[in-house]
Amino acid sequence: MPGALPVLNRKAVEFATLAAMALNCSINETSIFARKNYFYPDLPKGYQISQYDKPLAEHGFIEVAGDKNGGKKKIGITRVHLEEDAGKSLHEGFPDADEKTAIDLNRAGVPLIEIVSEPDIATPDEAHEYLTRLKEIILYTGVSDCNMEEGSLRCDANISVRPRSQKELGTKTEIKNVNSFRFIREALVYEIARQIEVIDGGGKIAQETRLYNSNEGKTYSMRSKEQAHDYRYFPEPDLLPLVVDEKWKAEITKTLPELPEARRARLVREYGITEYDAQVLTVSKSLADQFEAAAKAARNPKRVANLVQSELMGRLKARDAEIEQSPISMKGVAASADLVESGAISGKMLKDLYDLCFERNKDFPEVYDEEGRPQQSSDTSALEKIIDEIVAANPKQLEQYRAGKKTVIGFFVGQVMKASKGQANPQLVNELLSRKLA
Length: 438
Description:
The chain folds into 3 domains: 10-253, no CATH class; 260-370, no CATH class; 380-437, Arc Repressor Mutant, subunit A (Orthogonal Bundle), CATH 1.10.10. Helix content is 43%, strand content 18%. It is built from 15 helices and 15 strands. The protein has helices spanning 10-22, 124-141, 181-200, 246-253, 260-271, 275-281, 285-297, 301-319, 330-342, 347-360, 364-370, 380-393, 395-402, 409-419, 426-437, and strands at 26-27, 30-31, 33-37, 47-51, 57-65, 72-84, 88-92, 100-104, 111-117, 155-159, 173-178, 208-213, 218-224, 234-235, 242-243. The chain is elongated.
């Protein structure tokens, strides 16, 4: 803040270094803080403390899906540097004539890292994939909660177009303050089309900063974009050079967790699940931790993975809820998987119990107890009695089956399951029906 001497936050340096390591960057032993001078209403002292020519870390990369054949593409990371946050401008009514702007200075001076990527991203979908992988990695490190709505993750996207086969990049525009990955993709789609239209019409692209209006699906010019020399960088006189020596670097390295890609490969190897399963189950560190705890306790880890995707995720999506908000815990999924695995309950019974869990907002073991711990019926004589009644009541379907339409057995299976309130053992029902209908 104006008039206050800056003090470097040791934990912020450790977090920044940890993030840079997770992004495959080289950590520079010595980095320099600089003053970035510019006038903007949310920067009352007229400069921002940042890093310029000697940043904390450089030359990293993130791997994203490169093609439909499972190939990978590296998106280079130019640098990871430390800087202080500025205030926040709140634009109401933009871009209307009666627009009002308010300034929130509460976050000014808070430490942050800026991650600058190389111009390797070719499409809006690739940008979305890059941001998804980036957020995933940062969440695993614990460096940030990456909440875009609260501003703890923000993205500025630079876009330029060029004729096919031309090597030089075109003039770029910057889109700022987009608060979701979906809107970033939409903004990129619009801005690419806008630039092409301008160039095809004989115009020139102005280097500027633009805002995206998600209601209209359009970008609007906000201000002209400065060049690096316009900021008149010079070393920050109140902060010494930052030295992250080998000893400190080694201490930080010890706190680096197993990262998403490495964890996916291990889950596939150790639990026999598919790469797609591993992708879904490692979307957050907490989910991956819960899955591993459940998989270690379950009879069949693959069944646990299948239930998460087939039964849990669909219900959560219908609720527009995240896995952390699921009434069924991973222990609950493991318990239900074991019951199906042992033949104690059928798939139909499991679905009904999961529906009750979501209706009552309770975990699986609790609902299973409340329902009297229902068991799948393998009582042959009881099932034969039900089958005899259903066959007698449906002579037309029996005639079709005996005339060669074998698919009609599915009708009889359904009727038996309905009559047994879903508690009949489907495999046994099929066997008994095959004999009775012959």
